[in-house]
């Protein structure tokens, strides 16, 4: 994947602020045998390029003044609430030096697995990317993982995934972490789905209960003896 950058002459907070106002993003390229190089990139082009997965996980071709060099994206600083890229970092790549990089996992086939299709389970994707070590030429854009063989009571571990040629998975603390777990859907969860679809019968239940309660009160009132009416007061005698 290729992108175009420009050498940046001025440095400092004020110069970077003016660059952003002009629609440019300041950045830096470091690593290798040469010194760090200050660069700038068109902000709008960079904004759309960052949305591509390959820009984050593959070796990139950076062109500056007609010269192309191999780099990796290492860091992106975003504004806290604005759609603005504040700064971007790249690292030069040596073709003969192995590198550590995070690579996304692309899962497929879980809807056709026995666990999901016939055994009432769901596939929970615990890990979506893994760290690998390889030469730049062997770095994959992603690693495809087939889940069509998932069964109830079994989970997919890192050791179950076949790595591309020249690629080694790097784990920190766990030798064989779980990538996908098979979760059984409980009977209570399954019964809640029809209830949610038939909202009208559920709403009618309280109305029927209220009607029965009102009828019971009316029957009790009919059986109770009628109270005596208060005696009428005699007219007061007129004074002579």
Explain this structure to me?
It is a single chain. The chain is of the alpha+beta class and 240 residues long. It contains six helices and 14 strands. It has helices at 13-21, 43-49, 54-57, 114-117, 187-197, 199-223; strands at residues 2-4, 6-7, 24-30, 37-42, 60-64, 67-78, 85-92, 99-108, 121-125, 129-134, 143-146, 156-157, 168-170, 178-184. The strands form three sheets. Strands 1-5-6-7-3-4-2 form a seven-stranded mixed sheet. It is elongated. It starts with a strand and ends in a 17-residue tail after the last helix.
Summarize the structure.
The chain has 240 residues and is α+β, with helices and mostly antiparallel strands. The chain is built from six helices and 14 strands.
List the helices and strands and how they pair.
Layout: E1 2-4, E2 6-7, H1 13-21, E3 24-30, E4 37-42, H2 43-49, H3 54-57, E5 60-64, E6 67-78, E7 85-92, E8 99-108, H4 114-117, E9 121-125, E10 129-134, E11 143-146, E12 156-157, E13 168-170, E14 178-184, H5 187-197, H6 199-223
């Amino acid at each position: 994947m290729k992108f175009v950058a420009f050498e940046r002459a001025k440095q400092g907070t004020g110069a970077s602020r003016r660059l952003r106002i002009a629609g440019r993003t300041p950045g830096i390229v470091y690593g290798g045998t040469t010194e760090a190089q200050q660069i700038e990139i068109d902000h709008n082009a960079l904004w759309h390029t960052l949305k591509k997965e390959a820009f984050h996980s593959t070796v990139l071709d950076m062109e500056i003044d007609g010269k192309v060099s191999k780099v990796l994206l290492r860091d992106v600083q975003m504004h806290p609430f604005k759609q603005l890229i504040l700064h971007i970092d790249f690292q030069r790549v040596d073709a003969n030096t192995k590198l550590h990089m995070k690579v996304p996992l692309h899962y497929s086939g879980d809807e056709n697995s026995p666990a999901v299709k016939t055994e009432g389970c769901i596939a929970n994707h615990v890990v979506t990317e893994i760290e690998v070590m390889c030469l730049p030429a062997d770095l994959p854009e992603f690693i495809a993982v087939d889940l069509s063989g998932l069964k109830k009571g079994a989970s997919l571990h890192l050791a179950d995934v076949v790595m591309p040629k020249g690629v080694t998975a790097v784990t920190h603390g766990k030798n064989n972490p779980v990538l996908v777990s098979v979760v059984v859907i409980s009977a209570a969860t399954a019964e809640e789905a029809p209830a949610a679809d038939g909202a009208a019968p559920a709403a009618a239940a309280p109305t029927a209960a209220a009607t029965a309660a009102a009828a019971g009160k009316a029957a009790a009132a009919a059986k109770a003896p009628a109270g005596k009416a208060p005696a009428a007061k005699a007219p007061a005698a007129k004074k002579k």
